[in-house]
Amino acid sequence: MAISRAAPACDAGIVDHRVETAQKKREQMRARILDATTRVFARDNAAAPAIEDVVREAGISRGSFYNHFHSLDEALVAAGIEMSDRMISDIVPLYDFLREPWQRAAVGFRLYLLRDWQDPTWASFMTRMDAWPHKSRIAITMSKDLIRGKELGQFDFDDATVATDFLMGASIGVIQAVRCGVPDPGSYIDSAVRMALQSLGCSPELRERAVAFSRKRLADCASGKRAAWDILDPRSP
pLDDT digits over 33-42, tens only? Predict the structure, then answer.
């Protein structure tokens, strides 16, 4: 009778290393495709992008694309989730420690507009309606903040999903306007934050506090006067 023997530990280590290396290469290729998808869709071309455009941009074969995505739409959705999730990760130090929903709404909305102002490629990509998937972290986080704000009596709206979609749509319009150029971007962004809070049913007094709060918080962080993760008193301006 044959006696089976377990693979030597060194052989198991080789196998594990190969699996890890293969997984890393797969992740790198997927990231390469998503990066190419973002660049292709961010361009102002009259013709709709095709898989060939992404393949050419990434410098890969069509087969390599299909090893990761079934269609261009699937790659676009994945790129949208990747971009919005990366944005959430970037703004966590400036956003996640805020306690009040009205603070989080004002600062988050302003941060998106400032990112648009500073990063034209990101702005061009995010103005596509299909780049804002509902399963992204930003959509989920926004919806939770809106529900919490309504529970506290800070917001007044009928449906959190509708309110989230409305704000995301408003973001696209404002991002497009800032991207194309406005006479006074600072004043324009202030007005956009004010109107976003108005759409959520905030009182005039709370809207003005939100505009001043979000402007001062980001200015203080940029100047180094305040650590990004400091929790501000909700009563402060």
Answer: 999 998 888 8
